[in-house]
């Protein structure tokens, strides 16, 4: 959910007058969180299908006109942030409550920034 809001915020900030639709920002967020989670466990994401798929989608986003760069990268940024904290290895000693609090706080921040941006 946080990545969905991050994608919407990214699209709003980079292209405020553009009409957008779909959930690709959220999908980018899930992919970014997964890439981060795999990397935290010592696996090179580019040696997995996930990392390659994510890289191809990033290139597609940059190469094809009309694709929401802000939506995709906003979702990826928030997904990576939330994923890094909620999928953190035990050695990081992240408290259990953080897996709920961090996504909620990030989601609330995305909404607050979007509202502030729209209201001027």
Structural description of this entry:
This protein is mainly alpha-helical and 120 residues long. Helices cover 71% and strands 0% of the residues. It contains five helices and no strands. Helix 1 (2-14) packs parallel to helix 5, helix 2 packs parallel to helix 4 and helix 4 runs antiparallel to helix 5 (98-119). The longest helix is centred in the C-terminal third of the chain and has 22 residues, at 98-119. It is flat.
Mind sketching the topology for me?
Elements (H helix, E strand, L loop, with lengths): L1 H13 L9 H17 L8 H15 L5 H18 L11 H22 L1
Helix pairs in contact: 1-2, 1-4, 1-5, 2-3, 2-4, 4-5
What's the domain count?
Answer: 1
User: What structural category do the secondary elements indicate?
Assistant: mainly alpha
Radius of gyration over C-alpha positions, nearest whole angstrom = 15 Å
Number of helical stretches of at least 4 residues: 5
The number of strands is 0
- Give, in order, the helices and strands: HHHHH
What's the average pLDDT?
A: 93
Shape: flat
Distance between the termini: 25 Å
Q: Report the helical percentage.
A: over 70%
Uncertain segments are: none
What proportion of the residues form beta strands (DSSP E)?
A: under 5%
Largest sheet: none
């Amino acid at each position: 959910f946080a990545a969905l809001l991050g994608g919407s915020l990214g699209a709003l900030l980079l292209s405020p007058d553009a009409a957008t639709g779909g959930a690709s920002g959220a999908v980018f967020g899930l992919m970014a969180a997964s890439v981060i989670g795999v990397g935290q466990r010592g696996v090179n994401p580019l040696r997995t299908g996930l990392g390659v798929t994510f890289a191809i989608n990033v290139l597609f986003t940059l190469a094809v006109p009309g694709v929401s760069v802000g939506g995709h990268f906003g979702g990826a940024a928030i997904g990576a942030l939330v994923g890094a904290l909620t999928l953190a290895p035990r050695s990081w000693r992240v408290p259990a409550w953080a897996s709920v609090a961090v996504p909620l706080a990030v989601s609330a921040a995305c909404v607050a920034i979007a509202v502030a941006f729209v209201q001027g």
